Automatic annotation (TrEMBL):
Protein name in the entry: SH2 domain-containing protein
Keywords, ordered alphabetically: SH2 domain
Gene3D superfamilies: SH2 domain
PROSITE patterns: SH2
High-level lineage: Eukaryota, Viridiplantae, Streptophyta, Embryophyta, Tracheophyta
GO biological process, one term: signal transduction
GO molecular function, a single term: DNA-binding transcription factor activity
Domain SH2: 106-204
Length: 204
């Protein structure tokens, strides 16, 4: 609970400050100008220096914000309430290394449930049972208690698609100093229904 209160305070404070920096007059601003500031803040909060946001990640953020060419304060708040909890989770010791890992790429980035499903189905039908993809669900924004948590989408032994929420606070508790837990990737591969990392196949 303490973590949730801390996250809420920081989310509001950092979001208010960032909007003031981007729009001193509180007017809408071009999306293309805003993305640089948003990405810089994301990387700072997430404590990631090696992995920036891809064009696909930024497209998804734009869709979450619900904006076109211009970003209003309302659009920004929608985006921020989704992005901040994600960045906060990525900054934790037990997930930061797998976010920064690009070979293999454990967390594909910001993708929709539909993109995950179409990739697991693939052009020639379902991939092998046990193939999975890690994603941040686009439907979970602050103050939802699941905001920032990962979902594992996978092909089951029944050749059906399954989606399972990984509650990070439940798995790891609220602290970073747990030395008795396995890395997240080892915990995932130890699950009987998860055996191999999938790849995102984009249609464009």
């Amino acid at each position: 609970m303490g973590n949730q209160i801390l996250l809420a305070k920081r989310l509001i404070k950092d979001g208010t400050n960032l909007w003031k920096v981007m729009s001193p007059n509180n007017h809408h601003i071009p999306w293309e100008n805003a993305v640089y500031e948003i990405e810089e803040q994301f990387m700072k909060i997430a404590s990631c220096c090696s992995r920036s946001l891809s064009p696909q990640d930024l497209n998804l953020l734009r869709r979450i914000a619900g904006c076109q060419e211009y970003l209003t304060q309302e659009n920004f708040e929608k985006l921020w309430c989704w992005l901040y909890p994600v960045a906060f989770i990525i900054s934790r010791d037990w997930i930061n290394p797998i976010w920064n890992s690009t070979s293999p790429k454990w967390i594909e980035g910001f993708i929709t449930k539909e993109e995950a499903e179409s990739s697991l189905q693939g052009p020639t039908g379902f991939q092998e049972p046990g193939t999975f993809i890690l994603r941040f669900p686009t439907s979970r924004s602050w103050p939802h208690p699941d905001a920032g948590n990962l979902v594992v989408s996978y092909v089951g032994n029944d050749y059906k698609l399954h989606h399972r929420l990984l509650s990070m606070h439940h798995v790891y508790g609220s602290g970073d100093n747990r030395v008795d837990v396995k890395p997240l990737q080892d915990m995932l591969l130890a699950e009987p229904e998860l055996s191999r990392l999938g790849r995102i196949i984009r249609s464009h």
